[in-house]
Amino acid sequence: MRVKFWGTRGSVPTPGRATEKFGGNTACVEIIAQDHRLILDAGTGIRELGLVLAEEGPSKSTLVFSHLHWDHIQGLPFFSPLFLKGFEITIFAPPQLKSPLQMVLNKQMATDVFPVDFADLSADIRFKTLSQGGITTGPFRITALPQSHPGGSWAYRVEADGRTLYYSTDNETDPDAVDEDRTRQITAYRGANLLVVDGQYTLHEYPARRGWGHGVLEHVVKLATEAEVDRVAITHHDPMRDDEELNALERRIRKLAPDLRLFFARDGLAVVV
Ligand SMILES: [Zn+2]
Ligand SMILES: [Zn+2]
After folding, report:
1. The pLDDT value given to residue 177
2. pTM of the full predicted structure?
3. What Rg value do the Cα atoms of the chain yield, rounded?
4. If you measure from the C-alpha of residue 26 to the centroid of ligand 2, how many angstroms do you get, rounded to a whole number?
5. Which ligand has the minimum distance to the alpha carbon of residue 69?
6. Among 96, 135, 149, 170, fewest CB within 10 Å belongs to which?
7. Whose atoms come closest to the Cα of 28: which ligand?
8. Residue 192 backbone zone (phi > 0: left; psi -120 to 50: alpha; other: beta)
């Protein structure tokens, strides 16, 4: 699997010189296996991916959402392939949504807030639902696991070519969680060749942000170590952090878990899993 991070910022885009190294685009990860493309989330990072795809010519993509908070859908109206004939985009709704996915995406492009209606897009767009039991699309086997987040969110275990990526953004990992929750989380991570995981807060910051639905770095790293994952990519960086702070935090967290291969994801970074 080839994995590219197009958006690694949490909550809201953070353009500017102070964030140019890690980038300021919200959630979007591209996974390629056997010439099939799977896109996880459509934050503003999907815009730049769309520009590359439009340049390359018609292709097929599968898009899966962890949930429908703004930072995971707000790039979609600027995803060029949607506007182009010949492109085929299959969009999977996460399991158990409160409102239908099509309704939410239509609202995001309603006339009051956006110049083009979703119904007027030129691409061949197909809507499907990702059942909790999982789906197979092309070479990808995708399994959904419920997470702890206001309004709900889903982690995805993505398997292809004998490799496993575990995508877990917008999941509150409470350091004081009962053993049962810890065990469930460790079991979910186990076997991942790459764990892409929300590490928005530090342990020090967490008490003031309890219930906001995000990961606690020190705790996530502990769980990942216990789960013996191959490699960890921290993502969904807090919008308050600039490059300097993220660099310092990455160094500190690496020291906490010297046996764990860990990096802070940044926009534009590509890795082979
Ligand atoms: Zn988010
Ligand atoms: Zn969210």
Report:
1. 87
2. 0.98
3. 18
4. 11
5. 2
6. 96
7. 1
8. beta
